Amino acid sequence: MTDLSDLPPALTWRRARAAWPAAVLLLALALWAYAVRHTDVSALDDFGLVTALHPSFWAGLAVLTAGFWLTVRDPARSRLWPGAYVLGLLVMERATQAVLYPTPLYAWAWKHDGVVEHLLTAGELQGAEQVGDMAVYDQWPGFFAAQAALVRLLGVDSAAMYMAWWPLVSSLLLLLPLLLIYRTFTEDRRLIWTALWLFYVANWVGQDYFSPQSVAFALHLGVLAVVLRRYGRTGDRRGQALWTAAIALMAVTIVISHQLTPAMLAATLLVLCLLRRYRDWVPLVTVVSIFLAWCMTAALPFLSAALPEMLRSVGDVGANVSTGYGTTPTGTGAVATSWAARLLSGSVLLLGAVGVWRQRVLRHRALPLLLIALAPLPMLVANSYGSEMIFRVLMFMLPGVAFFAAAALLPTVRTLAGEAREQQTVRSAAPRRRALAAGGPLVALLALTLAFVPSYSGKDRISYFPPEEVELVQRVFDEAGEGSLVVAANRNYPLAYASYGSVDHYWFLEDDRRHVDAIVADPAATLARDMRGVERPGRAYVLFTRGQVANSEMNGQLDGEQLERIRKSVAGSPRFRLVAENSAGSLYELRQDGGAAR
Amino acid sequence: MTPQELVVRMLPPFGGWLALAALALPGGSPLRGAAVAVFLAAGPGAALVGLCAPALRVRPAQGPVDGRDPGFARRSDLLERLMLIVFVSVGAVMIVATVLFATHAFTAQRVLLALTVLTTLAAFSPRLRASPPTPGKPRTGKGSAL
Predict the structure, then answer these.
(1) Tens of pLDDT, residues A219-241
(2) Which candidate among A6, A15, A104, B17 keeps its CA 20 to 30 Å from the CA of A540?
(3) Closest approach of chain A CAs to the CA of B130, in angstroms?
(4) Cα distance between residue A77 and residue A17, in whole Å
(5) How many folded domains does chain A comprise?
(6) In chain B, whose CA is at the least distance from the CA of A364?
(7) One domain, residues A432 and A477
(8) What is the ipTM of this complex?
(9) Range of the structural domain that residue B40 is part of
(10) Would you call A225 an interface residue with chain B, using a CB distance cutoff of 8 Å?
(11) Together in a domain, A455 and A470
(12) Within a domain: residue B140?
């Protein structure tokens, strides 16, 4: 047996050097695991998860980022390490909330759970005459239909059992198409993996939750990857029919699932056709034909009703980029995290512009990516998309922007001309300048990575619904019969859309401002009047929860005191009776024996 | 076809029938969840992409202008195939479930059965091959098992 001391020192050093990426990655994940075990989310403040996280989380994220940067820039390392670090980033970014919170986050995710439940109950696609405005989901049912099947096949009660993990799953779905897109333009793994890293840290807009958009975006990137790789001007048409069939299948999936993504995809493919090297109209014609076919048939009821409003919003850029009433960050935490998000996006966009400006060779070679980044911008002129267009445009721009932002952090890209220049620069540069050239981008990458946390999790006080809140709302739907009405300040509570086929809702903060003032002035009487149309066997409830208060306060609507006065007025009124109450809120029912007439 | 190729080709339909059998396990059981999730995420796509792979391969892929690593293009092709396997599977699940809802025929078992049958047919079908580059001198015909 060989004694270890017999081994040459160089071998031991080489082994230690080979092992350090694993050691750093494990350290970062260990710090993360320690952090999630020692983070208390029971009393979130206005900074959401930011102030609740154990400090070791931040240390873990910093270690992970530094390890990634050092590994990705070392040509001697295995090409698998940057991928392992990016997976580590996804776990820390997108799985932390799933591990920390006992219930799924985000009222919109709960709404989509409600849609899946409704499909399972109804067993068919329904129209506006049955479910009113919610029929829009039956006209783009792809995602929900698949989830309905999955719920039954897994044998779980509802999608709420697994939807907390959807941000991680949907982020993983983006990995392959993004890799392929970037690998079409460069072999430089520093650029490929740094672009991926930047994409993930800048993608804070929160469209990774349990939603059709999360899957449609991945498929959108899948179509782009195929077009960029297989539809360049080679003159060789062999196999094209099958590639077009692959595009058609992805396009059908997008079109039956989501309204905006097909339009974004068509706009991007149209812009790509401006380039001589991608002037193949087949993908564009395929996508547009499928999109129009769906719009003219299954989606026609919604579109014919919404068309006048859609046409009015064309060209109204001011209204389209406005985020609307009830979305003004209010309070130190909401304002600070909102600015962190803006700074993060602004910095990545700025870095992208710097990359385009500095990397002349890359700008030419990766021109399609630059066009992909710019293609979504005209959508700001076209529609407001429920006050969300600016965020969606940002998300669709990110794949292209992240590539050039990564190029800005890397001094030179490995092209034949660039490599010669790099070697010359390295030889002539002073050691201090070289250190700055390596350290500066690391600091930038670190700052952007850390800024993701407040941008993504800074509003968790709004998005998190403790189990008591779920239990309280569940109580409503356990009792409410056909034709019942649930009144609440806003829709920010779990299960808000449960039984939407048979139970109606009224969210009074979304009503006309004068009516909101009337409710604030005389809450119990005004609400009772609003609820008097409910007839037996239906019942009329007023629901107050902490999620509604958080949403109203942090978005510049009524503050906690005003909402508490409304609650006390209802609680003290003989028109209402208390049904249930716990630490997350209270539930009252309108007495139907003449109470509403008083 | 080598025994190894046969195993690879039969894995997706086997996964589908296994997922169907797993429905006999109690709801929420990890084994049932794993069998269903793995098949839905990759099974139909693996069979369909496998069916079309020879024909898909003949169309050359665009790569970096300054490409020097011969293995880079091969790894990109592999990533592309993996992506198609997942996305075609996801697409197949969403389309089949939607069609069953639209025709008032939805049950989750029917979705799984339809996908398993589709996967089985694709696995047993002869591989699709593209037309040869020179017209009139085909090396293998479309639909040939060669």
Answers:
(1) 999 999 999 999 877 666 777 88
(2) A104
(3) 5
(4) 10
(5) 2
(6) B65
(7) no
(8) 0.89
(9) 3-57+74-124
(10) yes
(11) no
(12) no
